[in-house]
Design brief:
Strand content of chain A: under 5%
Strand content of chain B: 35-45%
Distance between the termini of chain B: 52 Å
Shape of chain A: globular
Number of strands of chain A: 0
CATH architecture of chain A: Orthogonal Bundle
Structural class of chain B: alpha+beta
CATH class of chain A: Mainly Alpha
Strand order of the largest sheet of chain B: 6-7-8-3-9-10
Radius of gyration of chain B: 25 Å
Helix content of chain B: 10-25%
Number of helices of chain B: 8
Helix content of chain A: over 70%
Order of helices and strands of chain A: HHHHHHHHHHHHHH
Oligomer: heterodimer
Number of helices of chain A: 14
Structural class of chain A: mainly alpha
Radius of gyration of chain A: 24 Å
Largest interface: A-B, 19 and 30 residues
Largest sheet of chain A: none
Chain lengths: ~290, ~375
Amino acid sequence: MAGAVQSNKGSLRTALLLLTPGLVLLIVAFLLPMLYIFLQSVQDEHQQFTMKQYLLFVQDPYYAQVLWRTIKLSLYTVAASLLLAYPVAMFMARTTGKLRGIVTFLIISPHLISVVIRNFGWVVILGDKGWINTTLLNLGLIDEPLRLLYNELGVVIGLVDSFVVYMVLSIATSLYAIDTSLYKAAGILGASRLRAFLTITLPLSLPGMIAGITLVFSLSMSAFVTPALMGGTSVKVMPVIAYEKIMATLNWPLGAALSFLLLASTYALVALFTRLIETKRYKEVFSS
Amino acid sequence: MAKTFDVELHGIRKTFGSNVVVDRFDLQIERGECISFLGPSGCGKTTTLNMIAGFLDPDQGELWIKGKRMNGVPANRRDLGMVFQTYSLFPHMSVADNVGYGLKLRKAAKEEIKTRVAQALELVKLPHVADRYPKQLSGGQRQRIAIARALVTEPSLLLLDEPLSNLDAKLREELREELKRLHKETGVTTIFVTHDQEEALYLSDRIVVLDHGKVEQIGTPYEIYNEPASEFVHTFIGKSNRLTGHVTGLRGEHVELLAGQGEQVFTLTASPRGRAFASGQPVSIYLRPEKIDLEPVGQANASVTQERMSVAGQIRQLAFLGSFIECEVAVGSETMMVRVPAGLQPQSLTAGQQVSLSWHPADVFVFPGKGQ
């Protein structure tokens, strides 16, 4: 017993020691700047406390519109990622060994290239003179180029391309954990493959889907490069206008307030989502 | 009309690549029978079960269940019950939902599902766990629930895929008694796949012994144990002493044998059991440890009668195993294990002691061998 306590104490000390470098980095490079930005958002030009930046959000519907658009595009991105990722994850769960390794690599490999380059790649594909429009025009299927870029569709395409990988890997991980004999059991009890998917696979992959949804949603909410490059001037989202306030108009207090509003709404939505899904029963089944 | 069987396998063959996993499997199972597929891993027993279940399709041959040809029919349309080695309960469903899963798919009414689930849980003596999740149950309880889930739909055939292998020894015995009782109560035709000979002997009406994809023997537990069709069957079921030797002659209904090497040889006789032997032929000779009587030399040898054979030996080692003592006895150049009931006088036996071993020639099995 004494030995166990001793080693517990020892392992606690080791754990703290292991955490220290990360903690120091987070405090210096993340927490302190956050605090600084927050202070900026509640100060006026004479360093006096004010809530006027936050009030502006309520007074001017423009900001609420941008926030709503950010949320909407993030939800679209989540939905499209989910639909695209699930079959891929199922394929990965069915393969083993080398093939699974190859597929995993193929899914991750685009991310070895900078997001800026990948977005420009999309411009080449989706633009008015991109190959989709050229092909369709040449085939005579359309008379004028389809608008695939510099609108909400373009942004969602770009975001899905950037973040679908997180959805695939999250879902695949939870599918790997399902004992394949469960499918046999469902089959022998009379379940068709579709029925087995709906009653066994889908519910048991819930933790992976929740992780994927949370990740893709948070990343989409805070995405800056893709909306800036593929949304053009018409599709403004929160990170983009926060950037503009700070860098273009040098309005640090407003930029800071917008950033905090974005952070708060993302956090609130994710918290609400997990709260709704992770019921008592869910915890009973999936807690280890 | 010819006799109808619940399950019929005709010339079933299955290959994976160039590997023949099951070949020329013929079997007829009567209604209400409990049949075991017994064999070492890789013998084809699980593959055959998977073909009967509908998870695999045979390359050749026909499979009939209840008078219906099943080749190509998917598992979900075969109306079977199955219990798996890993329990395979749905972790996200309560015990009641697990057991009721098959009934729900058959579109049974809610009330009916409730009653039948309750009955099934009663049958496996776990009526109080309906609202729990599989995770909250012990291994033995989980397997009972899995059995209830397999039986609740009143399947035409119950398949048991090594259902006891994941349980510890004591539970395994308990659950196999339970399986025997359930089989008796429900009368469901059952196929039981196992690598454990004791389970097969305990539970089955008949045993199919498999090796390398081929049926070695189909018979009652008694036949399998006492009249093995091949050397493999004899050695796979129970313990046996193997001696190498050769045939010295044929006398009436017996084969005369010489076992051992060099100077240290001894003679035996055995029943040929329908096999033909020629003088000089190398053979493998088997004798089960419990069929040998051991007497210290010098004591009155009451058990040796005219019919019995006896040889002299020396005890090398003794092991007390509760109900019996296992003696390793040197006989000529060979070593034989002998089981002596422990009730007698365990102290009277010591290592190094000279003893006399005796047995009945009918208990000696002889198979054509490759010699040494």
